[in-house]
Amino acid sequence: MCSRAGRTVRVKPRWCGMPEFSTQQLIEDIAQSLSPEQFDHAVGRSLAAFDTLNEQIIGEKGVTLDCHAGCSICCSLRVETFAHEIFLLARHIRAHFSADEFSALLSRLAAHEEKVLPLTVFEHATRNIICPLLQNGRCSAYAARPQSCRRHHSQDVAACQFTFDHPDDLEFPGAHDRDLFRALTAAMQENIDVYAELGYDHTIYELGTALAEALHDDTSWTRWQERGPAFLQASVTPGA
Ligand code: SF4
Predict the structure, then answer these.
(1) 77: Cβ below 6 Å to ligand 1?
(2) pLDDT of 128-148, one tens digit each?
(3) What's the pTM?
(4) Residue extents of the structural domains in the chain
């Protein structure tokens, strides 16, 4: 087990925990976060540490990735996120999208909700439904994308293409580097444990349906701050 700041992480990767950013630091950041902007700053700092960990392991282990700009095969997977990531995304979008871009996104989100909400998690995971933030093969909110997108990587784009062509084959192993994937998953868990311990809703929400709600309903943020459920309609992945 890996222990940081008196906590234990459930998996045992060789690379363990967040470099230069402790769990305690995130707790302190959140405790001092009175405004939405301060909250976003806290989330942004932990995302930056997550990226640093990712790059560190890739460098130290010599992982060779087959990912490249413009490849968006993985953006057809179901994206699982947490409320604090959705609020960061929503505020990033409000700050950076033009009125036309915002309006077009709302239309894509509405179409996405129509497709996804009637589906079970399993059905969604086997349908190749494109993320509504994908535009012209690129993520339109790349700087604020959630941890599950940052964790995703591939050492063989042919394997990604196979999963895209066979979306109902959930047994196919993919082409992750196992150590990298496990270490990033441990870091994600370490991060969400902080929100759980502070009493925040840490439900696993599907990105598109939760983002639609965040952009349409400002009370979602207030509810979450008051330790209630952030989203009431979004698609939810049951916890392990
Ligand atoms: S948020 Fe961005 S990176 Fe993640 S699935 Fe959507 S388009 Fe792809």
Answers:
(1) no
(2) 999 999 999 999 999 999 999
(3) 0.90
(4) 36-237
